[in-house]
Amino acid sequence: MLAVLVINTGEPTGPLASFSDGRVTSTASGWKCITGTVPSDWYSEAFDDSSWPAAVEYGPSNVKCIAAGAQWIATSDRNADKTYYRRKFGMDLVNLY
């Protein structure tokens, strides 16, 4: 599970990321996000985010160090002061040694 808090500094905001092997993590698929006040345990794995809306894709990245196919994601309000993001990953994305 990955939990991210994005704080707006004056421009539309949203996370954009990929794994070093090129797998894409920032498409709306699987991401939940919300603005406003959230419980203090919003980042814990046990937190129930089932009432959070799905993230919205806003377009492809042109950032050179991010894998092709990654999309900027956010809530419908990209100008919110704070946006909270969560995504649960399956074991297929974890490389165990």
Properties at a glance:
5 strands; single chain; mainly beta; two-stranded antiparallel ribbon; three-stranded antiparallel sheet; 97 residues
Question: What's the gist of this structure?
Answer:
The chain is an all-beta fold. 0% of the residues lie in helices and 27% in strands. It has no helices and 5 strands.
- Shape category: globular
The percent range for strand residues is 25-35%
Give the neighbour order of strands across the main sheet.
Answer: 1-5-2
- What would you report as the Rg, rounded to the nearest angstrom? 13 Å
Mean pLDDT: 80
Biggest β-sheet strands, sense, barrel: 3 strands, antiparallel
- What is the count of DSSP helices, taking H or I runs of 4+ residues? 0
Helix percentage range: under 10%
Low-confidence stretches: none
Element order: H for helix, E for strand: EEEEE
Query: What is the SS-derived class?
Result: mainly beta
Number of strands: 5
Calculate the terminal CA-CA distance, rounded to whole Å. 19 Å
How would you explain this protein's 3D organization?
It contains no helices and 5 strands. It is an all-beta fold and 97 residues long.
Topology:
Blueprint: E1 2-7, E2 31-35, E3 56-60, E4 71-74, E5 82-87
Antiparallel strand pairs: 1-5, 2-5, 3-4
